[in-house]
Amino acid sequence: MFVYSLAGLQIDGETSQDLELPDNEVTARLGVYQALARLMSCPDADSYAAALAGEWPGRLAHDAGLLPFSFEFGTASIDGAVSESAFQAEYLRLFEVGSGEGGPGAPLFGGVYGGGDRMKKLEEVVRFYEYFGLTTSAEDPRPADHLATEMEFMKFLTLKEATSASPRLQASFRRAQHDFLERQLRNWLPELSTRTRAQNPLPFWQWAVDRANAFAEADLAYVQSVMG
Fold first, then answer.
1. Which of 8, 34, 33, 11 is nearest to 142 (CA)?
2. Which of 34, 70, 133, 162 has the fewest CB atoms within 10 Å around its CB?
3. What is the DSSP track for 14-81?
4. Between 1.10.3480.10, 3.30.450.20, 3.30.1330.200, 2.40.10.330, what CATH number should domain 2-227 receive?
5. Beta-carbon neighbour count of residue 210 at 10 Å?
6. Where do the structural domains in the chain lie, given as residue ranges?
7. pLDDT tens digit string along 160-176?
8. Are 166 and 185 in contact (CB under 8 A)?
């Protein structure tokens, strides 16, 4: 059984609870989005230990066991000389704070990519969430357009597909997945990958960004094929 939990987002008026779901093609996709959201969050001791042991690709591959399409997670680890504090500092340098004036070189906030007004883009993301009764979690103050939060939203949409008994509702949630992937994630993840590479990153973080980008693209192609 796959255990689902929601982080970074909350359902209005409800408390998040773990759910046990049968393993199938939909929950495999859900599991990958859940793992990617965890991977792209600011690393804690567990995330560091998994990176040090080279376990992250295996964790993703385990969740992806029943994926309805082929996908390779490759290999990734960090050198034992990289401390936990250095690992976290590199994440912050690349994605959230930067190493000087001007902020990070490769921010994880989708609204800063592609030019234009970030606030308008942020409002569009929030409207996606609110349509499905979601708000950002008060316990997790990431912006709504943070990559980890957007991965959480994809996880939520695949959950709704997995738990809907009606084929009509299942199709509706697949359309929502398609729209969010096409209008949000695919529009900025390729540039995030390019900008990360330009920062001469710790290779682990380049791998993480590249896998998130490639999975979103592969999943969009799959959803399009199912929709016909």
1. 8
2. 70
3. -----EEE--SHHHHHHHHHHHHHHHTSPP-HHHHHHHHTT-HHHHHHHHTTT-SS----------TT
4. 1.10.3480.10
5. 18
6. 2-227
7. 999 888 999 999 999 99
8. no
